């Protein structure tokens, strides 16, 4: 199975204050087996690319439900 990296940017962006919209995405990813990093501008997850593709809709919906105004997702095959 191919490995991949998902980068998801959730806005609005507030320096040093990720907000509930960002934390909603992070909390879902933290419950997976992905390697997850909450960065200063986006959250990344690495794992099987098929599983990353499958979770994008859930992450986007969680972000909007928690107050996001915009999301951007970028997937790459490693």
Strand count, sense and closure of the main sheet?
Answer: 4 strands, antiparallel
Please provide the count of β strands.
Answer: 4
Examine the secondary-structure arrangement and name the CATH architecture. 2-Layer Sandwich
Q: Would you identify the regions where 5 or more consecutive residues have pLDDT less than 50?
A: none
Walk me through this protein's architecture.
- With 78 residues, the chain is of the alpha+beta class.
- The protein has one domain (3-77): 2-Layer Sandwich (Alpha-Beta Plaits), CATH 3.30.70.930.
- It contains 2 helices and 4 strands; from the N terminus they run βαββαβ.
- The protein has helices at residues 19-30, 49-65, and strands spanning 3-11, 35-38, 43-48, 70-77.
- It has a 4-stranded antiparallel β-sheet, with helices on one face.
- A hairpin with a 4-residue loop joins β2 (35-38) and β3 (43-48).
């Amino acid at each position: 199975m191919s490995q991949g990296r998902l980068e998801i940017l959730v806005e609005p962006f507030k320096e040093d204050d990720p907000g509930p919209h960002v934390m909603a995405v992070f909390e879902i990813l933290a419950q997976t087996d992905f390697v997850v990093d909450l960065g200063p501008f986006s959250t990344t997850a690495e794992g099987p690319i098929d599983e990353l593709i499958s979770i994008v809709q859930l992450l986007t919906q969680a972000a909007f439900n928690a107050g996001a105004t915009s999301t951007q997702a970028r997937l790459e095959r490693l």
